[in-house]
Amino acid sequence: MLELQQLTVAYGQARALWDISMHVKQGELLCVVGPNGAGKTTLVNTLAGILRPVSGRIVMEGRDITRLAPHRFCEAGIALVPEGRRLFAGMTVAENLDIGSFLPAAKKRRRETLDEVLQLFPALKARLPAPAGELSGGQQQMVAIGRALMARPRLLLLDEPSLGLSPIVVGDMFDAIRKVSAGGITIVLVEQNVSMAMRISHRACVLELGRIVAEGVPEELMKRPEIRQAYLGV
Ligand code: ATP
């Protein structure tokens, strides 16, 4: 579904991703893990069209989208849940969700998509009229994911959805991500919570210093001593 070909991304002179090549299959849940500063956020922001690569290509469903404007990435079926959620705190939950469906095709199906989002996150139903800034961290993360789903993406990019949430809420969040995946949406999940991310993912990529250093099925990656030591502390 998505192919990255020799992608290099830099902030000024400082390279953050070096010659990355990888693919995401249709319907797959791929997690990207790695230490702080590895380039995970840079990767998803590039896939969302927010950052422009210095070189390389991004091919979505057979089409080269590398040089498209950011909003065209949405039209191409890609939605990002950014790190830190980036909600409009003073606007209501309903308004935040509506913003996600700004494209005409998504707007037409707004009611139906909202029902699906509320089925996934029933706790949001009673909070629709509340300012998003008044919600708990977990509920705000639900709104951020809901807003991205309102665009009816075929590829969902999640940047650290579990960050700052309590363990119980993290479990619920991973369940919800698994449900979205089971519903047929392809997902790229960036996570610090490696063991949880590996548990729900079909495939994993390990990024270090802007390069992919390992890739494979989670169960097999988790058997490798260097990965266990670096990411699980065992
Ligand atoms: P974290 O988990 O800490 O968010 P990450 O794996 O997502 O880490 P990135 O945030 O993508 O890593 O950062 C990759 C590299 O790019 C780091 O060396 C970082 O210092 C650098 N970097 C990130 N954002 C910028 C920026 N806006 N300007 C300059 N350098 C940046």
Automatic annotation (TrEMBL):
GO biological process: L-amino acid transport
Presence of keyword Isomerase: no
One Pfam family matching this protein: ABC_tran
Ranges that cross the membrane: none
Domain of life: Bacteria
Limits of the ABC transporter domain: 2-234
Keyword set, alphabetical order: Amino-acid transport, ATP-binding, Cell membrane, Membrane, Nucleotide-binding, Transport
Record keyword Cell membrane present: yes
Gene3D superfamilies per record: P-loop containing nucleotide triphosphate hydrolases (3.40.50.300)
InterPro entries with a match to the protein in the record: AAA+_ATPase (IPR003593), ABC_transporter-like_ATP-bd (IPR003439), ABC_transporter-like_CS (IPR017871), BCAA_Transport_ATP-bd_LivF (IPR052156), P-loop_NTPase (IPR027417)
Annotated family: Belongs to the ABC transporter superfamily.
Protein's recorded name: ABC transporter ATP-binding protein
Organism: Ramlibacter henchirensis
Lineage: Bacteria, Pseudomonadati, Pseudomonadota, Betaproteobacteria, Burkholderiales
